[in-house]
Write a structure and sequence with these properties.
By secondary structure, the chain is mostly beta strands. It is 4% helix and 44% strand. The chain has one helix spanning 151-156, and strands at 16-17, 29-31, 36-40, 45-52, 58-59, 69-75, 78-86, 94-105, 108-116, 121-134.
Length: 162
């Protein structure tokens, strides 16, 4: 029987491999046109789920949750995210999804596709969704992701993510 974590492998790889750009990842928030954002951490984690209000104030209420954490890896000009959906009514309460993007500068990237490991479905974004960097002084705790205390994670996590 397949595991609910099948496909979640990015945490085993280095965070950055031969980057084309010096992507600004230390605590930076990336903003999508719909107002959603995520914060990047040096340990290869990202936290998303918050929104920017009409007056440009960040809503960080989602950051206290153990959910909505992802791992990322940068390879050349490609950025890959892997994380979990969270559903309380499904057999697998969480399943893996992957998002790929192209880094277009040191302060932006474009999302080009998503892949759902549960349904084995892929969505291509044409045109890609552009995400732009802006700095933020807020630094949620990047060690609270639900999977970071699991034995399977601790056993295989890449040294660059510790």
């Amino acid at each position: 029987m397949p595991s609910c974590t099948d496909g979640f492998e990015l945490y085993k790889r280095p965070i950055v491999v031969t980057p084309k750009y010096q992507f600004k990842i230390n605590g930076g928030a990336y903003l999508a046109k719909n107002g959603s954002f995520k914060i990047f951490f040096q340990n290869g984690s990202t936290k998303g789920g918050g929104y920017v209000s009409k007056d440009s104030e960040l809503d960080f209420t989602a950051f206290s949750s153990k959910e909505n954490w992802q791992e990322y890896s940068i390879i050349g000009d490609t950025i890959i995210f892997q994380g979990f959906n969270h559903h309380t009514t499904e057999l697998c309460r969480r399943w893996v999804f992957e998002t790929k993007g192209l880094i277009t500068s040191d302060t932006s990237y474009s999302i080009v596709s998503t892949y759902n490991y549960r349904d084995k479905s892929k969505e291509i974004y044409n045109p890609p969704i552009t995400i732009t960097f802006f700095p933020t002084p807020i630094r949620p705790d990047s060690t609270v992701a639900w999977y970071q205390n699991k034995s399977w994670y601790k056993k295989h996590v890449h040294p660059s993510r510790k």
